[in-house]
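**Backbone geometry record:**
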Amino acid sequence: MQTGTRLLMLAPFATISNFYMGEDQKAKPAVAAPYSGTDEQLCDEIERAAFQFFWGQANPKTGFVKDRAKTGGEDNYTVASVASTGFGLTALCIGDTRGYKPTAEIRTRVLTTLQSTLDKSEGYNGFYYHFVDWETGERAWKCELSSIDTAILLCGVLTARQHFRYDQQIVDVANKINNRVQWRWMLNGGDTLSMGWKPESGFLSARWNHYCELMMMYLLGMGAPAYALPASSWSAWSRPRYTYQGITYISSGDPLFTHQYSHAWFDFRNKRDAYADYFDNSIQATQAHKLFCQALKSRFPDYSESLWGITSSDSQHGYVAWGGPPAMGPIDGTVVPCAPGGSIAFCYDDCMTVLRNMRTAPQVWGRYGYTDAFNPLNGWVNPDVIGIDVGITMLMVENHRTGFVWKTFMSSPEAGKGMEAAGFRPSHSA
């Protein structure tokens, strides 16, 4: 992500800690009434607002979705990310099944996005540049050809193909996009995938070699119809175990989103490979993260049972990777709504408590749902939303409600082939 984005300072929330359930109720008057709607109503508000982002902040000529946008909806930002577009394709399918727009309009936007990806989005060997101009598809900021962002795009492409499986135009274009990805090339002679490539300098030295959001990438690669990864690549990356307050789970100390992204499309419920039940692993990671935030209360009194969540996001000083456990980054009391939002399918009650609590906080809710990040301790509220953060919240809320994304994406032959190659089988709890 680009850092140094100009951010907005608002007047401090002098009383917001009272609103966030758990501070001195007598000393401070309430700033807002608690959210009065049902959980289901809030889920629908979240999804409708997210759909507005993916519809309104996509270029109507290309379908490419902005990397970020102002919460109020008005800006001149012109850079799309291929990951945001992947989330956007999935969001269009959710919007279709929920009737947020007429099917004909959504179908046209999906086909436009797929055709533009095939014809305009700049890339090489089937992989795409992380950031592109939202109108021309040209590479932005001399960014890398990104293996993980291409994988997120492909998840959206396959979801759209499966949802509109009776539309031959959509199916044909989606297949062309998927079939030309040269997964073995991205191995660069190694056992694990490179994080990317630049025409000026070649492959990046960093590799996807330890547990994080990488599962979708390897499963897509092993399930690919052409240039497929060998099944041995599934065992080539490490799965270190970490224990926090008695909770042991696979983690490499990365932010919480790494336990969410692959789960937005791949259904790991009641399944395991030779190493783990990854859905249960994400439950444990979310529970540990909640405990971690609560343990910071002496330093950051805004964190509580009903207000927690730190994952990669904007901060007052630019985009930052932060979270824990263990603690990483310059944690300062900022709350990131997509942390509980993206984990709602794992720990519904805990995450919904936070989402309800934030819903009526001053300036935190806008046209596209929750702002990307905010700090109740000093009143800072990010004026932006970020597409991938809006996306993971929308997709996981829908998966909790209906399992739609899981069912649709998992109907693809590629998903089944990839999970079979990885050795997934029913878990003992199934």
Q: What stands out?
A: The domain at 16-29+39-426 is CATH 1.50.10.140 (Glycosyltransferase). The first helix runs from residue 16 to 19. The radius of gyration is 21 Å. DSSP finds 14 helices and 19 strands in the chain.
